[in-house]
Amino acid sequence: MRDTMAEGPQPKRKREEEEEAKNGGAVTQGAAAAFTLSDLRVRRILRESARDKIVFLHAERIGLSGEGTDAVVILEKTPFQEEKIPDLLKKPMNAELQMHNDIYCTFYLSPPPELSEIKATVVYPATEKHIQKYLRQEVHLIRETWEDYKNITLPFIQSQSFSIQWVYNILEKKAEADRIVHENPDPSNGFVLVPDLKWNQNQLEDLYLIALVHRRDIKSLRDLTAEHLPLLRNVLQEGKEAIVKRFGVPSSQLRIYLHYQPSYQHLHVHFTALGYDAPGSSVERAHLLADVIDNLAMDSMYYQKRALTFPLRADEPLFKKFQEAGKV
Ligand code: M7G
């Protein structure tokens, strides 16, 4: 069993923590002004999951003039780190016996801070679309033909979609430059591989990286043709090699896929640990990259011919557009 990573993530994390400690936990990068978590006030819970130990909050930061700016805060209990598990039983702590019956008993532990981390992801300032993304909603499946894509989806995503500035920041080394795991710098067939926002890199069980292509003219799976095969093959091959080299995870234990619809309209590929039930890895959203490559090799226009299924929340404007067109 793998118990440590082949290289680096741990020391890098230490460096980040030291930096953060120097800043008093302040976030200084990006367009937003420096702020700390304690500047944020919870407005309401958008969604929570007892199973995943995660809560999505609509928060706000009150400015000097008293008006609030929206933020989304995601709090998630982090997975166990194998090397720290023995300490959970050994370290002196308050272990309260809750019940004891025959051979069964339950304790409640209050572990020291280093053994009870919570990861906080902040989107600030957050748009209404970010808040909607995390709000629990009724979900419906859409079956989108190529004509539906041209007539309904494409005009909609051209008129409003998430900013992809964060992607350009990574490609231009303005953000996350020290996190890059691999880069092929070729402008048409190259890409950058970085740990996904969702992965804290402390354990391999929930390994999650994304490959962002350098080309800026491919929005999603729908735009792909055989012309893009060299790029896709590079992502698949070099991505696998970089992950086994850096993290020791073999390609047979990776799920490598694209989302349709993606939230961000710039082609990217998800690499997750096969044993991790990553959000968005289910059949209604994930398309394995190896299958995408085979489909394009068989028929260059495959993704401009076939219907694609994807989930939409009931309150999403795109869902309303499909409803208006009588497609739901
Ligand atoms: P998607 O399929 O477009 O959307 O994937 P989803 O978020 O609905 O799955 C985008 C991927 O990029 C997701 O896995 C995000 O967690 C990840 N991601 C988003 N942002 C804003 C960042 C970021 O700033 N840095 C990194 N490293 N990953 C991000």
UniProtKB/TrEMBL annotation:
Substrate binds at residues 166, 176, 196, 198, 259-270. The keyword Protein biosynthesis does not apply. PROSITE patterns: HIT_1. It catalyses: a 5'-end (N(7)-methyl 5'-triphosphoguanosine)-ribonucleoside in mRNA + H2O = N(7)-methyl-GMP + a 5'-end diphospho-ribonucleoside in mRNA + 2 H(+). It comes from the Eukaryota. GO terms for cellular component: nucleus; P-body. It is an enzyme of class 3 (hydrolase). InterPro entries: DcpS/DCS2 (IPR008594), Histidine_triad_CS (IPR019808), HIT-like_sf (IPR036265), Scavenger_mRNA_decap_enz_N (IPR011145). The active site is at H268 (nucleophile). Its main location: cytoplasm. Homodimer. Associates with components of the exosome multienzyme ribonuclease complex, such as EXOSC3 and EXOSC4. Interacts with NDOR1. Decapping scavenger enzyme that catalyzes the cleavage of a residual cap structure following the degradation of mRNAs by the 3'->5' exosome-mediated mRNA decay pathway. Belongs to the HIT family. This is m7GpppX diphosphatase. The gene is DCPS.
